[in-house]
Specification:
Two copies of one chain form a homodimer. With 219 residues, chain A is of the alpha+beta class. Among the domains of chain A are: 4-62, Winged helix-like DNA-binding domain superfamily/Winged helix DNA-binding domain (Arc Repressor Mutant, subunit A), CATH 1.10.10.10; 143-217, Ferrous iron transport protein A (FeoA) (SH3 type barrels), CATH 2.30.30. Helix content of chain A is 42%, strand content 16%. The relative contact order of chain A is 0.11. At the A-B interface, helix 5 and helix 6 of A face helix 5 and helix 6 of B. Chain A binds a DNA duplex (30 and 30 nucleotides) through residues 3, 5-6, 24-26, 34-42, 45, 56-57.
DNA sequence: TTTATTTGTTAGGTTACCCTAACTTTATAT
DNA sequence: ATATAAAGTTAGGGTAACCTAACAAATAAA
């Protein structure tokens, strides 16, 4: 059974591998906030345990086992977030930190019960997909708001970040999942978006924000 | 912040100290399933960190800090049990094992929210008292059923064990907290009890079982 | 293509837990 | 009161994570 550290390495590897299946030791270290020699040592352990493939000086890649295990940890994380939000009433800006700990609990019945109470959800409070029991994750290919053209209307489906500060910013702006956003204007010089949604008219969203909002065009 | 191992040592020390404030290294080791040298080393660490008082060859005792910390871990454990039982619908025989892990989560808001959702309970699904936020625990002085005289009627208030096998035995016998038990007969030679409760008439409970049922005389 | 930079590795340490084997101290029993 | 048993300690090891400093290999730039 994987240790907590192992699970955290696998999660990090999983999310890095989605962008690029060839993962460097350095970027993994940065992601996890540990030194390169630590990653180097740890990766050898993970290799010995069958989670990753690794040869010295070559990039790291996940084995099928590793991918599955990672997805199952992500599953536990996202189910926990959903539970904290929908059952316990926490705000979407609070759930990540707590789920970060809950995800390491070893109890299938506990997570199965969560799943059941939630009605077998397929996405978490930030719109990210919840892998199934076998570790299969649906990948939604939403666009970012920053890719949308003037005049189009979109629905907010998910977020690219679960960062607390970002989520609190969205709270302040009264932006939540499902909201319909109309792009009124795009400034050429800074790519900032002027949008309307709900009760809000002509709100300005920076390029940084627009790039973190995952949307689907509705008209 | 205490590690998980530290929290487990403190919990064990706390429950041992209730019977005898002078705790031996050996019994602590047995309770935790670790060797004497391991306990010896660990106790030195706990002493350095201010959780216990210790001098070589002398019995171990908890400091005030240690007692409070232990009680707070027990609080988290029992709140978790209550949550698993009342909110998530687990049986009282399932909750201990899961709570054993949840108790180590570091998140005050998480346990506060549990507490709130449960309506600030004062005891867990096995009738054990839940310490308050300051670490104060009420000690109930219930009698065991084995101390009750023939003809008396008692109410089952708590259990002396949260052992899964024991709880499943109680389930089978349809014995739950709050049930009124009338002692019909006590066998002299083996101290077994013949009792009636609910729909059940003249059920025989062994001395071993009777000693684990904590009751209050009602008539 | 040689240099500079980035990336990865080695060597040597640390802390928190855990172990067995062997020994010493304290407590118990005769 | 001495022998024996129980309790506690020391010595020596192990693993999983972490670290810094110094060096080597691979990649990118001049």
């Amino acid at each position: 059974m994987p240790t907590q550290a192992t699970e955290n390495y696998l999660k990090a590897l999983y999310s890095l591998h989605l962008k690029n299946p060839e993962i460097s030791l350095t970027e993994l270290g940065q992601r996890l906030g540990v030194s390169k020699p630590t990653v180097n040592e740890m990766i050898k352990r993970l290799e010995k345990e069958g989670w990753v493939m690794y040869e010295r000086y070559k990039p790291i890649s996940l084995t099928e086992e590793g991918k599955k295990m990672a997805a199952l940890v992500i599953r536990k994380h996202r189910l926990s977030e959903m539970f904290l939000s929908d059952i316990m009433g926490f705000g979407w800006e609070e759930v990540h930190q707590i789920a970060e700990q809950i995800e390491h609990l070893k109890s299938d019945i506990f997570f199965d019960r969560m799943d059941e109470m939630l009605g077998f959800p397929t996405s978490d409070p930030h719109g990210s997909p919840i892998p199934d029991r076998e570790g299969n994750m649906i990948k939604n290919n939403y666009k970012t708001l920053s890719q949308i053209k003037e005049g189009e209307t979109v629905e907010l489906k998910a977020l690219r970040s679960s960062d607390k500060e970002f989520l609190m910013y969205l709270n302040k702006k009264e932006i939540s999942l499902g909201v319909e956003i109309k792009v009124n204007n795009i400034e050429v010089f800074d790519n900032s978006f002027t949008v309307s949604y709900g009760e809000q008219v002509n709100v300005v969203l920076s390029q940084a924000v627009a790039a973190k909002l995952l949307v689907e065009v509705i008209k």
